[in-house]
Predict the structure of Di/tricarboxylate transporter.
Amino acid sequence: MKPIIRPLSTLLMGGTYLLSIFYPFSFAPSLVSLFALIALLSFFPYLNRVPKVLILVLTIGALSIELSREGLHQLFIGLQTNANVLAIFIFVPLLAIPIKQGNYLAYVEVIFSSYIKKTHQLYLFSTISAASIGAVMNVGSLPILYQLTDTKSFQPYTTLRLQSMSRGFVLAFLWSPYFISVGLVLAYFDITWLQLFVPGISLALLIMLTGYFLEGKKREEIPIDVPKPSQDVLKKAKWKVAELALIVALITAIIMIIESLTGLSVLTVIPLVAILMSFVWSLFFSTRQELVQNYRAFFDARIPGMGNELSLFIIAGAFGTALLDNGADEWILALLGSLNISHVLLLIPLILLLMVIPAIVGLHPVITATILAITLSNSPLFVGDHLYLSLGLLASWMAAILVSPFSGVNLLLAAISRKSPFEISLKNNAGFAVLLWGICYAGIVGLYLLK
């Protein structure tokens, strides 16, 4: 298929879903499913081997389940199950255009070179950068941050840099409204983003400080071989980084205000605001020609680069729906009954096992999370525990991403650093993943006891 089909079908899938929110029409689900099917088929030849195998297995599984009931139509409609979350995944990366065009990351580099003198400071700055910039730019921020710290002074500490970037990046899974993880739990569980944000950001900060404290115990002096930037350059860098933080905070505030005033789901508001603010923000830095070039690059390169995650999420929604249609909620209740699990605080450790073990052997956490979210959100057993389930699912998702050699984060970091993904995941982050999840679980228990 021609390369244009991949980005075009992706945009039509997300765009049709958003249009149907304001102008409902009866065949909207079928149309979104059609574009999702075209995207799935057009991306498939270009996917990595592991996603290809997973998609084939899930497709065969969903077909065998659905053919026993209502045939292909149910599977076809199930392809649009995650359209609301996919709209965030597709359109939020537009915000990366003004961030790059405004040279904000160059000013982040100035801050790095000015204030990092010891290894624990390098860890903290890298973690904060990955957690904050990554919360908006997603995984695309990691190669940039790696290059920013790939100076002669910091190159001897590559392992530390990789650890801080992966650990900082996954913290956004807990709270960022621009992340597919948060979008997923908001789509299925009866909670709002504001309910999730306070405990999510609190746990993320606590985990970040714990990592900083642990690195502080083995701090080393970093010999700096480059001259310090002038005071004028440093002052401008501080202003530009503060400007970036304020603009992102403003965009988030706009999303919350629109959600409150209109009653629209935050899952609808986020992609719409991302589209609008990306364009308005870019006008301050770009000529008309540069703007056209940036959006063309988004269409030609950024969207085709989404293939692995996008395809998995499409088929995961269809497979999860097929399971639910055929009594998966009853299966899970039966499993919980056989294990004598009737309390949410006992269920959350089981979620960890169900997320991490498959992830280590190659099953993408998106698939497991989707199936768990669809089934648990419909369970009457935990109807009043959706906040704790959401936090438990997100904490387990973070741990799975850190320890899986096949996660997109670890594969990307392995590619840019020329290290083994097994070294980056299991060797360097397994212990921290356990610590991270333990902190989250303790926070969930505390939140539960205070209710």
